[in-house]
């Protein structure tokens, strides 16, 4: 199976635990840590609710990615959301992020490599940003299973600069594939 190719639409960063992140010309991924200058940078978990539970947990949420196609879907439902506004570091196009298996590898730009660790769980802050947004990012499949649409999380395997228009190559892990779960 040949790898799929997508692209970076936008990159965003925030050095504080703000809900939205600022778009920038480039971000620098740091191996084993995350996005340089981002509040979630580190080997151990930095998300405030996770730190409260156990600050020694490994940081499986070093990089947050959302597909730009989600914003178009949300706009069709009356929401106005653009890259960085719901906390992602990398906005992508052309890759079905939510259907990737755990352990999928994203080669981004010239040297950055991100391993997908799981799904972002939509949180109530989404409703403070725009009323009803949290529900819009949750769905159910035909069997009634919850579908989380707020993007995926990953860890940095190899550092490097990531910029808008950079290509993204997807490599799937060996079979059997494990579906993404909330991290």
UniProtKB/TrEMBL annotation:
GO terms for molecular function: catalytic activity; molybdenum ion binding; pyridoxal phosphate binding. InterPro entries: MoCF_Sase_C, MOSC_domain, Pyrv_Knase-like_insert_dom_sf. It comes from the Bacteria. It holds the Pfam family MOSC. Residues 22-171 form the MOSC domain. PANTHER family: METAL-SULFUR CLUSTER BIOSYNTHESIS PROTEINS YUAD-RELATED (PTHR36930), MOSC DOMAIN-CONTAINING PROTEIN (PTHR36930:SF1). This is MOSC domain-containing protein. It comes from Brevibacillus nitrificans.
């Amino acid at each position: 199976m040949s790898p799929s190719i997508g692209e970076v639409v936008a990159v965003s960063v925030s050095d504080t635990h703000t809900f939205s992140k600022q778009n920038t010309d480039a971000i620098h991924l740091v191996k084993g840590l995350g996005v340089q200058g981002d509040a979630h940078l580190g080997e151990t978990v930095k998300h405030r609710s996770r730190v409260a539970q156990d600050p020694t947990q490994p940081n499986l949420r070093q990089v947050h990615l959302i597909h730009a196609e989600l914003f178009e879907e949300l706009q069709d439902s009356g929401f106005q959301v653009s890259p960085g506004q719901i906390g992602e570091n990398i906005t992508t196009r052309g890759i079905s992020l939510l259907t990737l298996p755990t352990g999928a590898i994203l080669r981004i730009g010239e040297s950055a490599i991100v391993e997908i660790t799981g799904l972002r769980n939509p949180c109530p802050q989404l409703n403070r940003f725009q009323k009803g947004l949290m529900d819009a990012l949750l769905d159910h499949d035909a069997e009634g299973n919850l579908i989380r649409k707020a993007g995926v999380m990953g860890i940095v395997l190899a550092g490097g600069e990531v910029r808008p228009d950079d290509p993204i190559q997807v490599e799937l892990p060996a079979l059997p594939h494990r579906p993404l779960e909330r991290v």
